[in-house]
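Notebook p. 47: complex prediction with iron/sulfur cluster.
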Amino acid sequence: MTSSGWAGPAVVIQTAFLGDVVLTTPLLAALAARHGPVDVVTTPGAAPLLETHPAVRRVIPYDKRGRDRGWRGLRALATRLREERYARAYLPHRSLRTATLALLARIPARIGFHDGWRFFYTEVRRRPADGHEIDRLLALAGEPAAAYAPQLRPTPEDERAAAGLLAAAGISAPFVAIAPGSIWGSKRWPYYEELACRLIAQVAVVVVGGPEDAGLGEEIVRAVEGGQGRSRAVNVCGKLTLRQSAALIARAAVLVTNDSAPLHVATAMETPIVALFGPTIPEFGFGPVGPRDVTLGVAGLVCRPCSRHGPPRCPLGHHRCMRDLGPEVVAAAIEETGALRRRD
Ligand code: SF4
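Predicted complex, structure tokens below:
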């Protein structure tokens, strides 16, 4: 029997990084079109992003590294899922933990990728080796590439919070958002301060990110305040929830970002992107996809790319994949998006 033969609700288990969860929203939309809104098991961090998504019936947070960690947490969640009597589980995350959870929950149809834990699945779908991650994830539902786009839905309260923070900072006109952070140190472009100092003569700058990026944001704002800027720079890192941050990014003329989660949030909010790739490359499947987006990276470096995620530090010490990408090149790319011209 194939999964389509089972009646009952569907659950998607996706406990990967935040950006991966955003890129899973097209899969959720595809599954909702087929089965009705789905339940999603995801990390507590990503849960608020999905709670308001129209393809989602309910979000079940799984704190796999905290409160729910270990075998006991896994079994407790499996018991909870079993009580929901799901007919099918879609498993875009290829971890053993995800496969075990669906099995222990006794979900009769378990659909996963061929390069996951196939003996735990009842249906195995081929995960394309190439293409964008959005399309590779859509293949789990047997959907063609680009059938659905990433989407996030901030609430009116989220919109008001973002607008209120900008107003309180004295930013009324369109602005450039910059997201300088990344979990992986080698992915962080080192010239955001210089870029902000260039931009500030023309346009306001808003630094976005989580609480862990607040220090980076402060340094950028301090650098701008020491210069001759006519516009304002403000650091909102850690001051907004994820959905409020999405609402703020939606208001930006353009987002400048590393290869990190804000890139995918901007994709979902249809904000033009200038994406800076260092130790990773867009061909890994995580680049921007919008028609006005620009991707930058240093060509001709024999060491690039050096890892799937980007190492904590450059193993060669010189970090040329980022250091050779000057602020003047990034400023020109912002011009190329046309975002600043539309401001006038
Ligand atoms: S080894 Fe090369 S690609 Fe990797 S971080 Fe260093 S400069 Fe970048």
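Notes: Residues 280 and 308 are 6 Å apart (CA to CA). Residues 1-5 have pLDDT under 50 and may be disordered.
Next step: compare against the earlier run before touching the bench.
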